[in-house]
Each structure stands twice: as structure tokens, then as C-alpha cells.
Amino acid sequence: MFRGGLGVPKKATMAPILSDTEVGGGGRRDIQTDHGLMCGGLMSFQGEVSDSPAPGLTTVEFRTSVPMVTYLTCFIVSDFQRLPPVNISQGFPFSVYSTPAQVNKTAYALELGSKVTEYYIDYFNIPYPLPKLDMIAIPDFVSGAMEHWGLVTFRETLMLYDPNISSTANQQRVALVVAHELAHMWFGNLNWTAHDGEVEFRTSVGYTEDVLS
């Protein structure tokens, strides 16, 4: 799996570096990869070009992004799979991805995440501004969870749930983390700040929304 973000230099793999609190002016980025792999980014697909730039490769074209701080950008190339997405009433798909072996453990996060998203759209009375919303469970993800806009990333233990073997405490933890990260689609992503000292404010608001949801 390839995972890349645009932010501080140690995360930079795909584009020129901006400060992680600097606003990118939107733009469109493509990914070139082997045929048949899942390519994820903050925006939805615009198209694919097979055998480009060479035989056996595919160029995946993403739609032009909205302006945002660069630490929210994320791209993933993998063999991950998903259950059928849920269509949010606002008119965009909500999907949850995992490794093929774990995809049956994503049903709870898919149901919960789609309902929490519907709740936040109604509660904030502010439409979700992107054309899709994905969550993805990554093995050994060091950050625990991260509110990448449109492609929210999680450590597997914080998103996957198996009703046959998982504890109630695990279910509650998944619910709390999912609700927290989705709250950031509004608090922290829409109302970004240019000062790292205000991260605590954005995070505390996220925890408040956990309780409300």
C-alpha cells in the first residue's frame, strides 16, 4: 500500500511542500498506478486512462479540489475493498474501506458513519462541501485516526467491529472515534486556523460533538 499526504516535509510524497497550515488554492492531481488498484483521495474520480503513461499502468484523474490547508490532503493506493456505499441524503456517497480480509468488519462503521454524517449536516445546518466521504482502516496506522478531508484514516482497531467477537467497550470506542473524526469535517476542516496553538480548540470541539452525537 502507498499512503501519502501533503503537509510537513516528512509527509510529503506527491507535490511541492507548503506549510501544514498554509492554504492550497485547490487544483487537480492525478495518480499513476498499476491496473486494478484502489486509488483514494479527498475528491471523487473524474476519469481513468488505461495504459497511461505506459502499458500496464492506469492514470486516475481526480476532480479539482476545494481550497484547504495542506495537512488535510491524503492519497492512498492499495488493494483495499469496500461494502456497497450508503447514499447520503445531501446527494453524495459514503464509503468505508479496509483490507480484503477485514471488509466484513466494516459494516458497523459504515452504518454508524453515515448516520453521524446525516446528523451533523442537520445539526450544523451546513452542507458537507465535498462530493464524497470515505473512511479507511489502515493496518498499523501510527496516528490512530486523522481527519483527512474526504478520506478519513483510522487504525484498524479504531474503526473495525465484529459483533461476534468484539467487546461492548470496543464498539463504544469505535463509535466515539468515528464521531470525533467526522465532526472535524466541519470543525477544523471548514474553520481551519493558521496557528498550531488553536488545534486544542478544534479538537475539544470535536470531542463535544462526540457527546452530542
Automatic annotation (TrEMBL):
Membrane topology: Lipid-anchor; GPI-anchor
Cofactors that this protein relies on: Zn(2+)
UniProt GO MF annotations: glutamyl aminopeptidase activity; metalloaminopeptidase activity; peptide binding; zinc ion binding
GO biological process: peptide catabolic process; proteolysis
A GO-annotated cellular component: cytoplasm
Record domain Peptidase M1 membrane alanine aminopeptidase: where: 108-190
Compartment(s): Cell membrane
Keywords from the named record: Aminopeptidase, Calcium, Glycoprotein, GPI-anchor, Hydrolase, Lipoprotein, Membrane, Metal-binding, Metalloprotease, Protease, Zinc
Reaction(s) catalysed (UniProt annotation): Release of N-terminal glutamate (and to a lesser extent aspartate) from a peptide
EC number(s) given by UniProt: 3.4.11.7
Subunit description: Homodimer; disulfide-linked.
Family, as annotated: Belongs to the peptidase M1 family.
Protein's recorded name: glutamyl aminopeptidase
Protein source organism: Timema californicum (California timema)
